[in-house]
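User: What would this chain look like folded?
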Amino acid sequence: MTQPSDKALVPFVSVDHMMQLIHHVGLEEMILGIASEIEADFKRWESFDKTPRVPAHSPHGVIELMPTSDGEAYGFKYVNGHPKNTSEGLQTVTAFGLLADVYTGYPTLLTEMTILTALRTAATSALVGKYLMPKGSKVMAMIGNGAQSEFQCLAFKAMCGIETVRLYDIDPAATAKCAANLAGKGLTVVTCKSGEEAIEGADIITTCTADKKNATILTDNMVGPGVHINAIGGDCPGKTELHADILRRSDIFVEYPEQTRIEGEIQALEDDHPVIEMWQVMTGQVAGRRDDRQITLFDSVGFAIEDFSALRFIKRAIEGTEYFEPLDMLADPDDPRDLFGMVQRAK
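Assistant: Here's the prediction, encoded as structure tokens.
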């Protein structure tokens, strides 16, 4: 049987390879590298094709495709969000992604993105925090201690200099899990019995809950002046975490307004409520934090350009390593017009 040529073999990064790569590079170093890639891509925001992700909603959850291209490379992510999965011993979110060459249309990378999405979400949060958090911030409240929480805490430690995290979840077992996982990671970890207790003394408040409903994780009276809110749990229609009055007191920063107005916290506001796009802050066109009393709110829903950045980081990171396998997924006949003949000869 004819062996596939190198041009027909696509690097595939499995879950096991991704975990090995993280230990090889270092988790915090991976987050910093992905954040650097995201920042560079946000600074050339206008060179990308942009569209809100394509969702398929069901009573059980949502399945989405997130595509983008900069004209030279194309990337997409397949991702689901099924909050009920945890009760069945399954992940709430799973994902895989693909990178391709625009000139040939050939895929150049296929990778798991369940772990990678956690890394890129944390990288995005901390990158935005670097621009918006109060100067000298050292304490973060982490409300929602599920699968994303440890990545978020370590990202803010690595990029923003956070020293203390105050943890709260409605499930005490989740908080205990998060605290145990963060032990020995260079953070002071405080477990709390309520959201109100968690935000005491916090300069940054991160909310990351999974229920697909209009929840009120933070009420208006809980949020004082000068804090930065990193709201990453709301990511589909009908799923929010913050009381609308908090939004009206805050300067709201988003990735892509056309998507955030459908899926983010601002779905609770009027369609024309003003928001600031983070790429404009990163390029210096618009101010981020202006004073000590300003409440900044990052209404994060995740956007395809962040996944594109993460995919490109992984493609470079695996070069010269053993942390991938060449996948035979492209038909490659000797004569590109003779696909049928290739099939016949395989007999």
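The longest helix spans residues 114-132. If you want, I can go into more detail on any region.
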